[in-house]
Hints:
Helix content is 44%, strand content 5%. The two termini are 26 Å apart. It is mainly α and 81 residues long. The protein has a two-stranded antiparallel ribbon.
Amino acid sequence: PNFVKARDTSQENACINNLRQIDGAKNEWALEKGKKNGDVPSKEDLLPYLSKWPVCPAGGTYIIGAVGVNPTCSIPGHELP
């Protein structure tokens, strides 16, 4: 039981760090391209700002979302504070 909880916590923390990376890339993209809140980048738009596309260790999928909105993961609880 303790191992499962530790694994879940580790996966959640890794996912949150991935969401931070995506959010940072999205903000850099918006600054460089002169985009405003509400503009939505594609995965291909953000790849130049990331060394590789992050993957949720729990198997979730990421939704980039619009500028000014936090990216999200499909796994409940995996979200930016």
